[in-house]
Amino acid sequence: MIFNKLFATSVCLSFTLLQALNLDEMLKQEFIEPTSTCNIDYKDIVDYGDLPVWCNEALLMNEYESKVTAIMDNFYFSYRKILAKHINVKDKNKIDVMVKNMLAKQGECQEMANNIELPDGANPIIPFFGLTSCLQDEYGKSFYELSSFIYDNPKYKYIFDEIFSTNPKEYYEFMKSNSNSEFLLKNILEKAAKDNLIDKTGKLIKSYK
After folding, report:
1. Positive or negative, the Cα torsion across 30, 34, 39, 41?
2. Of 95, 123, 148, 208, which sits most exposed with the smallest number of CB within 10 A?
């Protein structure tokens, strides 16, 4: 009986490990569609469902970084969507302000890239390497801000715990210790992929309807 239980546990664990993603595998996909719509001018803010988003032009510039940015975009907006479903209207307005501030900061990233003057003969794609780094950094900062807001609030901490159900305390401590790192969200994605918390596009699997 004990052997059967151990065997069943071993099979389940092996299956989980086989199913686990990693970021490198996710980036091998030919195309990753972001949540943000890209058929508008980047300066425009539109309603995407109940969430204002803007077009991330950097998604078209560099294959590797565009995919990383698209995965971050999907993770970030699926995260925000879950939070919005489980907090009261007053606090939902607060996180919407955080999201809009992030979008405004990303707009500044775009403006900065547009204003870079390149010497004659320089590769025109150069400004966009800095742009993708800037965009990804803003996703990470805003993710940290949103996470701190719910984790530090006794009413909402359970949401964070359910999203990062494999080990919420470890995720929170990892997030806190990497809060000043430009690679914060990329590292979170690596961990979430291994823990089977996201799909191959970066979206959180659990939606908590």
Report:
1. negative
2. 123
